[in-house]
Amino acid sequence: MSIPDSLRTFLQENRNQQSHQYSVGESSRIARLSTTSSYHNLSENLTTTTNNYNHSNNNSNNNSSSTSILDRHTAKTLQKLVQRFIQSDPDNPQDQVHYDVTYDKCARLLASQPSPSVLEDENHVANMIRRKLTRDPQDMTNAARFGHLYNKLTSQPVLRNKWSILYLLTLVSSVDDPSSAPLSPTGGSPLGLSSVSPQLQPVNSRPYDMQHESTPSRNTRRRLADDYLESDQMLPPAVQLEKAREAFQNSVSNSGYEPVVPESALLRDLIFIFQGIDGQYIKYDSHNQEYVMDSQANVPQPTKDLVYRLTEIGWLYQRIQTFIRPRCNDPSAGLVAQAFCFALQHELTDYYKLIAVLEAQIEKQASNTTAVPNEHTLTLRRLLLWTRESSQRLRLMSVLVDVCKDQKGGALVSTMHNYTKHGDPFIQKYIKAMLEEVSKPFYEMLQRWIYEGELDDPYQEFFVACDPSVSEEELWQSKYTIRENMIPSFISSELAQKIFLIGKSLNFIRYSCQDDTFSVRNHDSSNPSLPTFKYGDILAAERSIDLTYRETSKQLIDLLKHKYKLMDHLRALKRYLLLGQGDFIQYLMGTLGPGLNRPAKTLFRHNLTGVLETAIRASNAQYDDPEILNRLDVRLLEVSSNDLGWDVFTLDYHLDSPINTVFNPPAMHQYLRMFNFLWQLKRVEYTLTASWRRWSMASRDFVSVPEMAQDLHQAQLCISRMVHFIYQLQHYYLFEVLECSWEKLDDYINNKCIDLDSIIEAHSQYLSEITQKGFLSGVKNQALSMRLNSLFEIILTYKSVLDNLYAFGSSSHRDLEKLKRIRTKHKDMEKKFQTQVLEFVDVLASYHDEDLRSLLTRLNYSGYYSSN
């Protein structure tokens, strides 16, 4: 039967019977006319449907009330349909009542149905029909015919809503086709005929009706229709669901079982749980650290699952609060940790607002028990949905609490920064926003350190540490250190070193150099060139730090060079301790030589100091700066029983703060070692020179002693070889080692140094180079150093042999046996010297240094020692 026929039959029967009842089967077909429920639009229609339903119940006999729930065009059309088929007499009150009831029921039926879920597009609906027709190969002819008819339909300009016509035809075709696919979530009909109970189905669909009567009586149809219209099937879905819940609760209560805990009570408990408070049915198990449901509470398992998922929020909140409470007011936790706690509290503000909104909603629902549920009604599932974002934030805060609970200062900032590399953009943005607040104490410490040189770090959170027990004289070397574990991961080691040197330089200028000019200029907070650092702008911070680093280092180096005469001190050490001032050293050697040959115990420092002052006045050293000369002094080393004056005498150079930062004790110790070595070399050279002069005169004095002629010749040859060896060694040290190393140091300090540490490093490299090339350091140089000492001892011992030979020639009583012993000793010393030189040359040949290769060539010229 077509839809118009069903409408005609339905209304005609009502008119003939003067009844207020509908047939169930016919009304269901009418309902199918407006069926296409959309799942996504269901919540929007729920409120309208419920309100319309309540309004119709209260004014069931009022046409204007029923009309208000429909749009004007639909209401007018419905009035015409009812008036056409009822054909009531306006003067007959009974006909008018029948008309009003019929119209009201039809209006309620239409208003209770959701809007279609199909896209309002004629092409879309046409494609749906084509797909339906082409499923069966036997309907291919109908599909082609449909295409032809559809083209005719689209060519009609009078018709405007062509998609509605197509959609209506689709619904009509589905009425008598049970195999057709449903077009709405309710299975094709809002009333769902398949769900109607058997007693409410049309009588002509029942087998026993078919047996007893071919057509059901009108009274029966009227009764069934009234029963259906008065049943819950005409109610909106939300009202049906609520009534079903009440019926289930009543059935459970009547059965004697424990009543099911209502959802409203669970919602109220969950609000308490969200605030870390136990509820009536849900409580916190501190042993297992989880929320559990009261074992006596009758809650369905699906509901329990929902509740347990929601209790995670309270569990996360408790973990966060457990972290915040003890640290928020505990200064020992550190400023960065406290900033982290306050950032967490700030993040919880939105969470508290959500709890307040949810609590107000629950209170509103609890106070209005008669309200019809709608899309604003709070349920467990809606609560799960509404708290999803807050739950995600709480999870992230809980993770941060876990990883940061044992951290503080820069380490805490670094740990949080590592999460900004997460692949989730939400997590990246969230962590960066939180770090802007958490890192503020760290950046305030950083600014004070690089702009003022002050370390405001009472809880050891900054990566620069200060040792207050260290004196100002050791400020640069030991007072400040770097805590590697407190360097944030977004600050590179190079940048951290610059930051460290800036503050250290400011303190060195202020306290060691006694110059606060530069620090006062930086201390001026009104200076616009001093930017404020914040997290996320590391490039701007690097630029500012780099500029401040260059300015501070330049100021410090200029102070050391000009005010404290750094280069003058370096030259003084080279001239006096490294024997660069030749006339001064020669005079000092000649004056002190005889006295240093005596035992060390017989020497007195004041006597040696007087000789030093005489040597200064007798040489070009007298023209040096008096401040430099006043620092030059004599020092006697610790005396042993058999030591001579040569073994304990040394020159000393006094240095004080701040220049002693460059000339630290290790550096001065290396200067002392070089002086002792060069002083010993100078002593050997001085001894050989004196012997050479003496034997040059002896060759004339001992002409009358013919038995010594050969001895004189051998002695002069041996002295010449020794002098050649010592002179080549001196040339190597004074020019190829000291002068070349000095030129590199001088060029670096004047043109390339960037900070005080670089000067200290360059000076240390300079000393290391001259000691290593001078065979005083390094494992490989030990063999050369031992052979050099042996050669020095041989030369000094050989001098005593020459003295014995000279005494023999000067004696009036010449004992030939004594001469033979002297000759034997002479040959023995000559052989030892040649052997040690040969070993020294062999070891020297294993080196690849060009300067040492040149020394080897000069010592073993034409392979003299190798061939012998």
Report on the architecture of this protein.
The protein is mainly alpha-helical. It has five domains: 3-117 and 184-234, no CATH class; 118-183, no CATH class; 263-338 and 352-398, no CATH class; 425-563, no CATH class; 664-867, no CATH class. The strands form three sheets. Strands 1-2 form a two-stranded antiparallel ribbon. A two-stranded antiparallel sheet has the order 3-4. A two-stranded antiparallel sheet has the order 5-6. The protein is elongated and about 180 Å long. The N and C termini lie far apart (137 Å). Mean pLDDT is 79; it is low at 1-11, 13-65, 178-234 and 520-526.
Short description:
The chain is an all-alpha fold.
Q: For the residues shown, what is the average pLDDT?
A: 79
Distance between the termini: 137 Å
| Shape type | elongated
Please state how the strands of the largest beta sheet are arranged side by side: 1-2
**Radius of gyration from CA coordinates:** 55 Å
Count of DSSP E strands? 6
Count of discrete alpha- or pi-helical segments spanning 4 or more residues:
36
Which range does the strand content fall in?
under 5%
Catalogue the unreliable spans: 1-11, 13-65, 178-234, 520-526
Structural class: mainly alpha
Proportion in helices: 55-70%
Task: List its salient traits.
mainly alpha, two-stranded antiparallel ribbon, about 850 residues, two-stranded antiparallel sheet, about 65% helix, 5 domains, single chain, disordered N terminus
